[in-house]
Design goal:
InterPro entries: NAD(P)-bd_dom_sf, Sc_DH/Rdtase_CS, SDR_fam. This protein has about 270 residues and is of the alpha/beta class. It is built from nine helices and seven strands. It starts with 7 loop residues before the first strand and ends in a 9-residue tail after the last helix.
Amino acid sequence: MFTLDGKVAIITGGASGIGAATARLMASLGAQVVIADVNQAGSIARVAEIEAAGGTALAVETNVCDEAQIKHMVEMAVTTYGRLDILFNNAADLDIIGGDLDVTAQDLSNWELTMRTGLTGPMLGCKHGIPAMVKTGGGSIINTASVSGLFAEVYMTGYPVAKAGVAHLSRQVALQWGKQGIRCNAIAPGLTLSPAGLRMPEPMREMYVRHNMVPFVGLPEDIAPTVAFLASDMSRYLTGQCIQIDGGITGAIPIAADYRDFVAGLTAPPMSG
């Protein structure tokens, strides 16, 4: 098993969901963790959990739409722990997805908030995190994209566009700063039963189960190990990539679920003539 001993990690959106699961795992692997979230009460609760388990963590109230708060977040990590090695840009405002509609029905303010939270936030994290990392020899940045950013969505527009941008931002950072010791990758989770995922209507969750290669929908704890691996020195030759953690939903032909049902009703192979 790899270790994160001696490393300092910032996790935005760390109060719940994937961020919280990753904070707990990284702390258990030896990292000193800064949980940055607008939900300060949730962050403090996560810190208490980590400390009760013998780990080290700090809560810093952070709105990733505010550059001054991002700058303060990085400064707090460096002031408290002396360095920055890992940045997990994971925060998202999924409450605005309800207003993310077909392009002709887009409300401009909703679109701009989606871009600011989903794409500008990770960019600002990189902008202020990279200089701190370079001072101590480099580091690893992981940005949360989504399978929604890899393919067209039926009704949403802003969210998948922002997540597609996150995947490419990660490649840009990896190229621009790789020679200075910075690695940058994105993860693209499928449906995950985080607090936001749990709000999805049951019929929609059942669709994901039907199309996943595995017979279930993932938990935040299914995403965290890949993030921790990307943060560790075990992945030192891995950069500029977008890793899909999605139960296999993007790995099959799009009609796979329908095709499986079709074949199940046949008495002979479909192409047997």
